[in-house]
Amino acid sequence: MAITIKHVYNKKSTITLDLDTLAKADLRNIDLKDMDLQGFDLTGANLSGANLFGANLINCDISNANFENAKLCQTNMTNVKGRRVNFTNADLRQAYFYQANLSNCNFTDSNLELTHLDGCNLDCSMFTNANTINTRFNCWRSCRCSSYWREES
């Protein structure tokens, strides 16, 4: 069985993957720029080095996924389930997280400049050396984070 992913802006543009599921899939360095992945199960998937610039990940389960060195700029992650996700050194500039469960995630050395984290669960997540310039943490008062921030001016 093949999985077809449509482009967010041009629904005629698609990518077809010869996979039964994206859970635990090896998608290293794949180009999914501006693709609509809404509702996909990406649990345990390896997306290290992937380009997901502008992708739609609304209602996805990304738990235990690896996004190390991935490009996630302007990605919409509304209502994602993302426990124990590795975002080490990921580029998350201007990404939008709304009511996302991001507990126990690793954001070490990631770039979160101008990122919105609204109503998210960030319990026990690590932000060691993360760039949080102008990052909007609307969940900040209710979450317990391992917070080692690098705010550059």
Give a short summary of the structure.
Mean pLDDT is 87; it is low at 148-153. This protein is mainly beta and 153 residues long.
What does this protein structure show overall?
With 153 residues, the chain is mostly beta strands. Helix content is 0%, strand content 17%. The chain is built from no helices and nine strands. Strands 4-5-6-8 form a four-stranded parallel beta sheet, with no helix packed on it. Strands 2-1-3 form a three-stranded antiparallel beta sheet, with no helix packed on it. It is globular and about 40 Å long. The termini are far apart.
Characteristics of this structure?
17% strand, three-stranded antiparallel sheet, four-stranded parallel sheet, mainly beta, globular, single chain, 153 residues
Percent range for β-strand residues: 15-25%
Q: Please count the helical segments.
A: 0
Q: Estimate the helix proportion, in percent.
A: under 10%
Spatial strand order of the main sheet? 4-5-6-8
Distance between the termini: 50 Å
Structural class: mainly beta
Order of helices and strands: EEEEEEEEE
Estimated radius of gyration: 15 Å
Strand count, sense and barrel status of the largest sheet are: 4 strands, parallel
The tally of strands reads: 9
